[in-house]
Amino acid sequence: MGRLIIISNRLPFSLDKDGDKVSLRQSSGGLVSAIKSYFENGAAQRGDITEKMWMGVADFPQEDWDQAVAAHAASQDFGILPVFIDKDLYDNYYNGFSNSVLWPLFHYFNNLAAFESHYFDAYVQVNQLFAEKLIPLLQPGDQVWVHDYQLMILPHLLRSKRPEATIGFFLHIPFPSYEIFRLMPTEWKKILLQGVMGADLIGFHTYDYVQHFLQSVKMLLGVDSYFHNLQYQDRLVRIDLFPIGIDYNKFHQGTTDPEVEELRNKVLDNFTDKKIVFSVDRLDYTKGLMQRLSGFEYFLERYPEWREKMVFILNVVPSRDTIPAYNDRKKSIEEKIGMVNGRFSTISWQPVIYRYNHLPFKELIALYQAADVALITPLRDGMNLVAKEYVAASLGRGVLILSELAGAASELSEAILVNPTDTADVASAITRALAMPLYEQRNRISLMQRRLQEYDVFKWVNDFMDQLAQVKQEQQKQKVKLLDEKAIAAIRKHYQKSRNRCLMLDYDGTLVPFSRIPSEASPDNAVKELLSRLSSDPRNHVAIISGRDLSSLDRWLGEFNITLVAEHGASFKMRGGSWQQMVSVSDMWKEEIRRIMQLFVLRCAGSFIEEKTNTIAWHYRNTQSGLGFSRSRELLNTLSQLIQNTTLQVIDGNKVVEVRIAGFDKGAMALKIVGEMDPDFVLCMGDDTTDEDMFKALEGEAYTIKVNGGASAAQYTLLSQQKVLPILNTLTSDSQVSLPEKKYADS
Ligand code: GDG
Prior knowledge:
The chain is of the alpha/beta class and 747 residues long. The strands form 5 sheets. Strands 5-4-1-6-7-8-11-10-9 form a 9-stranded mixed beta sheet, sandwiched between helices. It has a 9-stranded mixed beta sheet with strand order 18-30-29-28-19-20-21-22-23, sandwiched between helices. A 6-stranded parallel beta sheet has the order 14-13-12-15-16-17, with helices on both faces.
């Protein structure tokens, strides 16, 4: 039980002043009503959430707030947490970094991005101000939901002070492909990604944006995903798509509102013998207004039969007019409109009816309903709600022409989809839409309406909040327990009682520390003594399950009466037996992989290739750390693409990128050994990604221990390799010995 705290750049409240009288007004946006409904119909009834609050920058001065707070704040639907920010700082954060760097870049207008470092500094500072305001107020059980590109660092800032907090993040604009995202200065893009990754659940509108984000996280933070889940700094983070919906009934109910009807009839009366094409957008270069006008101009030129039989009502809503990139565009758009009207108008007809204003809600609905065609052709748009609203408001007729580059295009497939830069495509879509038979219009509209009604904004909020709760539950389940004295004592007791024990140990990073040169990682005397002691006890079956090649394992450990597994299970020698191969295939595939890896050796001093029978690996342990890591991301990317649709597999190991034949792994091998001996005690230790296969395969059947910390499917974790031998000696000693150190688990 806790509070729901929504955080967005702006508060959805404004202060109205009438002389000395000050009052608060709540905006009626889709998100506000969706959160209210979520609270009233679900969360509050179930008792999950006791209160709802909204935090954001106030568009009124602190003095007015101080006056109004006592009288009005308490009676609002939301508890209000205003953030007050100095004007210059806000300008650099909002007009600067948010809207002159992130907005253009994320909408693929990289040439408009102004990478000014003082913008970035202001962005960090404002995110910090949000964090500083919220952190002291956070209580256990609170659920925080951060919205949009202005606050990408906030989740991390909150997480660093409140590790257990429940934090969701939703991006309302596109997340661009890695090639675009990487244009940003290195430090900034890492801080942004790490910032967002502070959340437990990260939501996007479309599958593409999810994929782009995952790719950037993989390339820049080195974290791979598994079915949209990531293990990041010991936490499970889920990335998923939640295509935002609209308040369907609010737009659809317009159909029965007498005021809307009157307004609609007024519009229709004005254009009795003409069809209406309508569009409404904020003045923004992403909306493709110039391209739309070019498409419309080409339509008039190419299809003269439509002249004087239709009008294009183009409504532009003022926006961000203090940013030069916006103001310049207004002039060009108006010039273009003048040109089109000048070229095609007649004494009794003007093709473009241009308005530059914000329409009252009912007038907007009336125009949606009066329009025969909605022409919505952004060059990029996270989702585009206007397209959805047009469909919802429809009385069963009308055609939607939609840009294929708007997020909404993936849901509104019955629209006529166009490429907004293709003037001929736009022109032919307009003529097709104007001529579309009524039954086809009805059909398309009703299919889309059904979908919009089903997944409306209320469902969207529910879905996001449900998933957030689920991630928290999974994190709880996953929490790895540190191997403490109590656990050691319990394992030891079980060991002493059992008669048929199986001990499965990884080699590098577990039994022996990592060595700069793999061939020098031979076992020292302490390891040999331990293996000798364990393997001479007839109740023990020791198996070394390693990614090492067969000959190294044989050379170093062949003298012991133990099972050896090489190359993650590709070859093995059961205790007392001889070496066998799990697979036998030609190694032609290695040539191409080797060639690529050799290029990376040249490009990254200190890296080298290790070849084994069934795998080939590129090691970067001895390279300059930043360079090695970033080259490894490139190599992973190249190899992943190369091996698509083959039986090979790329593994992002501990400072090593490895390609191997898929179809066997340490987990399968562990199960094979356990299956053959039916033990009454199983212990399994490992440190690497590939050991996770064993931990998962042995879940519930073994004591699994992950060495070196980090999130893992293992039951226990041990934070240092140096403790492996002492612990193994303790666990497996028959007599009562004192523990080698007071505490095994690092504190
Ligand atoms: C982001 C993403 C994503 C517009 N003109 C008037 C007016 N509007 C209303 C519309 C609609 C909203 O404004 C604009 O919707 P967008 O979808 O374009 O969204 P944005 O708020 O710009 O921004 C976008 C969205 O977040 C949601 O995640 O879809 O891609 O950029 O609701 O109706 N409303 C009135 N008069 C107008 O003149 N009353």
